[in-house]
């Protein structure tokens, strides 16, 4: 397999070059898996792929699906025929746009995140929402640890030092040690648990915080988020995002993390107050940050140009060659269940009490 990342541009993923099987010789979107479909009627019941960046999904769906693409011309009759949508759940989806599809019954997120969908608006109209569950959490945890190690051991800085010719041997490059770190994890779902397990393998103590207690966890839960930040020098954000926790990593939390602290965010950009983060990085009130997600994506590169001690990656933590087929397979299972009148595999639950916070 070639070195380096796989860049997916629009609806045309790059092909793989391994030739150990017939499937591996095909373009990525043609070799997700061999799928056996059930029998159900699809007449005048169409599935709309909304976001062009996941357009490759169209080629992976079984032939029994009647597919429309939102970036192609769509007639009023076509809108009326749409009963399910496939979306990238982290991309904002306007309710006014959804309202143009009177027979819409399912919004199927290819991704594990669904913060781009107003699930309350959907629930009030009887529209179901699904997402990917426990498909890419191991990859995201790997990425989080990679960011932590890269920043702590100065890997990016070291690379630049060698390439620029500034490494002259006159002085030894000294970095932090992993043994100096204690890790606070925000959110202990599938990603948080996977991160915690990796931290233990590196001998790092783990503390966590989330809004709900979890008695089955072997890790101590902090009394609140500020305490979590104050008692650790690494804060890894791994929680889900919704309207209730926007900017929960505020200036106050960053101040608690302090001038020796590192922030790692592999969850959602909306969870972190980026303005407060940048101000504290520039004033050295925070040691560093490693971010895979941003408030606006793609983020404006000028925003980070003069910000010291950061490592930035393009929301790629959960996207690997191994994960994409699993995401599509789970997506298809949800579409088939809905169109076949069966229970959804991974529905997004909306708690009745949550409506009170709108």
From TrEMBL:
Keywords: NAD, Oxidoreductase. It comes from the Bacteria. InterPro entries: D-isomer_2-hydroxyacid_DH (IPR050223), D-isomer_2_OHA_DH_cat_dom (IPR006139), D-isomer_DH_NAD-bd (IPR006140), NAD(P)-bd_dom_sf (IPR036291). Residues 145-317 form the D-isomer specific 2-hydroxyacid dehydrogenase NAD-binding domain. Pfam families: 2-Hacid_dh (PF00389), 2-Hacid_dh_C (PF02826). Residues 84-348 form the D-isomer specific 2-hydroxyacid dehydrogenase catalytic domain. Gene3D superfamilies: NAD(P)-binding Rossmann-like Domain (3.40.50.720). Belongs to the D-isomer specific 2-hydroxyacid dehydrogenase family. Transmembrane segments: none annotated. This is 2-hydroxyacid dehydrogenase.
């Amino acid at each position: 397999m070639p070195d380096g990342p796989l860049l997916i541009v629009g609806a045309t993923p790059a092909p793989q070059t391994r030739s150990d099987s017939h499937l591996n010789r095909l373009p990525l979107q043609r070799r997700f898996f061999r799928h056996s479909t059930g029998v159900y009627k699809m007449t005048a019941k169409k599935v709309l792929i909304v976001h062009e960046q996941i357009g490759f999904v169209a080629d992976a769906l079984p032939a029994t699906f009647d597919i429309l693409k939102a970036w192609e011309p769509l007639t009023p009759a076509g809108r009326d025929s749409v009963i399910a949508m496939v979306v990238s759940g982290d991309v904002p989806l306007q309710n006014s746009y959804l309202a143009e599809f009177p027979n819409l019954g399912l919004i199927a997120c290819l991704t594990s995140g669904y913060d781009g969908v107003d699930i309350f608006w959907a629930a009030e109209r009887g529209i179901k929402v699904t997402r990917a569950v426990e498909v890419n959490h191991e990859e995201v945890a790997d990425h989080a640890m990679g960011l932590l190690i890269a920043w702590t051991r100065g890997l990016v800085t070291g690379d630049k030092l060698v390439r620029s010719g500034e490494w002259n041997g006159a002085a030894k490059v000294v970095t932090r040690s992993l043994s100096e770190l204690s890790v606070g994890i925000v959110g202990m779902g599938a990603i948080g648990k996977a991160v915690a397990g990796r931290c233990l393998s590196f001998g790092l103590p783990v503390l966590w915080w989330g809004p709900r207690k979890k008695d089955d966890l072997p890790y101590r839960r902090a009394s609140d988020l500020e305490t979590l930040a104050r008692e650790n020098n690494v804060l890894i954000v791994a929680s889900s995002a919704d309207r209730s926790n926007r900017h929960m990593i505020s200036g106050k939390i960053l101040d608690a993390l302090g001038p020796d602290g590192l922030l790692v965010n592999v969850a959602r950009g909306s969870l972190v107050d980026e303005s407060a983060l940048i101000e504290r990085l520039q004033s050295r009130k925070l040691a560093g940050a490693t971010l895979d997600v941003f408030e606006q994506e793609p983020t404006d590169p000028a925003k980070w140009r003069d910000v010291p001690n950061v490592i930035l990656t393009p929301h790629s933590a959960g996207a690997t060659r191994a994960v994409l087929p699993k995401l599509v397979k789970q997506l298809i299972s949800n579409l088939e269940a809905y169109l076949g009148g069966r229970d959804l595999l991974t529905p997004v639950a909306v708690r009745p009490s949550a409506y009170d916070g709108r």
